Amino acid sequence: MVDLSGQYQRIKAEIDQAIQSVLDSTEFIKGTQVKLFEASLSAFLDGAHVVSCGNGTDALQIAMMTLGLKPGDEVILPVHTYVATAEVIALLGLTPVFVDVHADTFNIDVSQVESKITPKTKAIVPVHLYGQCADMSSLMKLAAKHNLKVIEDAAQSMGARCNNVHGGTIGDFGTTSFFPTKNLGCFGDGGAILTRDAGLAEKARMIANHGQKQKYRHEIIGVNSRLDTIQAAVLDVKLKYLSQYEKSRQQAAAYYDSHLKGVVVPFRSGFSTHVFHQYTIKAERRDELKAFLQSKGIPTIIYYPIPLHHQPAYKQPGSFPVAEQLSKEVLSLPMHTELTEQQLDYICKTVTSFYRG
Q1: φ/ψ bin of 21: left (φ > 0), alpha (ψ from -120 to 50), beta (otherwise)
Q2: 3-state DSSP call for residue 213?
Q3: Which of 3, 204, 332, 357 has a CA that sits 20 to 30 A from residue 301's CA?
């Protein structure tokens, strides 16, 4: 699904030198490279504040803590997403409220959000799934109307733009993950909180550091969540190649689009670019296709086989027909920066042969 080895080999000398510089300095925690990477990512995101942390799940938690959400507050999120989005809400004693998604973009259906707003609703968490932004323009208008906070879960969309603005920098907060398979991934765990509000950034940085701005002076309740220096050094190198990686993924996606037969290829919305963290199709006889591809040496993954409202830990009453149908249809094909035309051709011909019998 992802060729991390091939990607590493292309920039091995730079990565090895960056890691060695950290080893030589022995600044393994809060080293110079952490600040350098935060500054580099801020520049990439057109000046948004960047607070690095331990992982994408921590980033969501820190953002919600910074906004002062209290137990019992309701937070709206899409029902078709990875569990971490709902997990953090529940861990903080908040109430997750699910909304169905669009059948084409797979992102939250903003037209259904207003019907879920109650006096207890305090925030909305759109998830920019698979590499494409949710309809942030409509969502921000709705949030302003009801005085709600917006936290963008941008873990799968680094580099994507919504109406020419970087996803993750539009709401009160954005959060991202640097898990190794992400478009911008490190060699372990890592994450970041993004915001254009300097005051929120300062508070988030304190929370991520045990609630302190000055050592041993703990002004607010915080957590221990930090990006280690080696990971920051790796990310600072890889960030220079992110635009190139994006083009490689988009070229692979274009090849899939033009050569696949028998499936529904990913829809591109008019307001967002697509950076293809995943290339996710909708396929008839999905499970049979998955088994057939596996027999031919082609890996695939289902993101996500069980909607959140059917998960034992997050069961909720309600009808979410689009998410339930997607759980039976979606299938993600190999998508990464090292795909060759030969590999793409083999995958497409194998999918086509399945539907031609």
Answers
A1: alpha
A2: strand
A3: 357
pLDDT digits (tens, 9 = 90+) for 234-245: 999 999 999 999
Token pair belonging to 90: 């529940």
The rounded Cα 280 to chain-centroid distance in angstroms is 14
> Is the whole model's pTM more than 0.85, yes or no?
yes
DSSP H helical segments within the chain, as ranges?
4-10, 12-25, 32-44, 56-66, 84-91, 136-146, 198-208, 229-239, 242-259, 286-295, 321-329, 341-355
Which residues, 6 or more positions from 13, have their beta carbon under 8 angstroms from its beta carbon? Answer: none
Rounded to whole angstroms, how far apart are CA atoms 123 and 74?
A: 7
For residue 62 the two structure tokens come to 């820190």
251 vs 230: CA distance, rounded Å: 31
Encoded tokens for 296: 């031919």
Handedness of CA 228, 45, 207, 149 (dihedral sign): negative
Contacts of 22 (CB under 8 A, 6+ apart): 28, 31, 33, 229, 230, 233
Q: Are 100 and 320 in contact (CB under 8 A)?
A: yes
Question: In angstroms, rounded to a whole number, what is the distance separating the alpha carbons of residues 175 and 315?
Answer: 25
Phi, psi of 267 (to 5 degrees): -80, 140
pLDDT band at residue 357 under the 50/70/90 scheme: confident
Using CA atoms, how far residue 101 sits from 109, 296, 325, in Å, is 5, 32, 11
Residues sharing a CB contact under 8 Å with residue 104, sequence separation 6 or more, in sequence order: 267, 269
Peptide bond into 304 cis (omega under 30): yes
